[in-house]
Amino acid sequence: MINIAIDGPVGAGKSSVARECAKRLGIIYVDTGAMYRACALFCLRNNVEIKPENEAAISELLNSRLNLEITLVDGVQHVIVNGEDVSDAIREHGVGMAASAVSALPEVRRFLLDKQRSIAAANSVIMDGRDIGTVILPNADIKIFITARPEVRAKRRYDELVAKGNNVTLGEILVDVNRRDYNDTHRKESPLVQAEDAILVDTSDLDFEQTVSGVTELIQQLGKM
Ligand code: DC
User: Fold this and answer.
1) pLDDT band of 21, cuts 50, 70, 90
2) Is the CB of 99 under 6 A from ligand 1?
3) CA dihedral 176, 181, 182, 186 (to 10 degrees)
4) Which of 3, 65, 119, 195 is the most exposed place for a label (fewest CB within 10 A)?
5) By the 8 A CB rule, do 70 and 78 touch?
6) What are the boundaries of each domain within the chain?
7) CB 145 within 8 Å of CB 200
8) What percentage of the chain exceeds 90 in pLDDT?
């Protein structure tokens, strides 16, 4: 059993890198951002405005009416909300912003904490998020903090959204990236911060393959895999 924690800001390439490394290492990839996105989507669909004043109502909604399942189909994570596969719906641009807001609520973080820990307790995983190395799996075998300059992250995010048919501008996305960085690093509960024992990987000047092979080798060396 091995638990690998990967954290970092939005658009650093964390998810795609972690997914590919997990595939090469033959272990499970868990995207915790998708779980926050699913909670946000559920609030939006139930017309509950995501704001601190509504924390109790949101907690009640999630605890009483949301059945959130993470399943793996051919090694690919699917997010199931009350029986419906929402894996695509949670990738919409608006859901990302809502996820940032919902993730600032301590009750929501508590709601997801046990789910995330129990997946890691039962499997060898690469788990990616914001607080995996600091809060969820403080005893992870390996911790990696993946980042890149904001402009580089905004451009990657922009390319991704445009490829999916979203009508956005690069300027808009850079504003969003900076706003989400601010939200994620300044919230009181589990802010995004590099764990003291995490290894920093800056992908600004690396392409996808360079990053994946570098991170995979790092894991193989440190984890003696
Ligand atoms: O990685 P992502 O963009 O899919 O994450 C969506 C939001 O969820 C992001 O704004 C930060 C938040 N998040 C978090 O607070 N903690 C995690 N472990 C994962 C994501």
Assistant:
1) very high
2) yes
3) 150
4) 65
5) yes
6) 3-219
7) yes
8) 86
User: How far is ligand 1, taken at its centre, from the CA of residue 192, in Å?
Assistant: 9
Residue 103, ligand 1, Cβ within 6 A: yes
- Strands of the sheet with 68-73, listed across from one edge: 68-73, 76-81, 84-85
Angle at 103 between CA 50 and CA 11, to 5 degrees: 115
Determine the Cα–Cα distance for residues 69 and 61; give it in Å rounded to an integer: 16
pLDDT band at 216 (very low <50, low <70, confident <90, very high): very high
* CA 206 to ligand 1 centroid distance, Å: 23
Entry pTM: 0.90
Residue 103, CB half-sphere, CA atoms under 13 Å: how many? 27
Which structure tokens are listed for 53?
């004043």
Counting from 1 in the atom list of ligand 1, the atom nearest the Cα of 11 is: 3
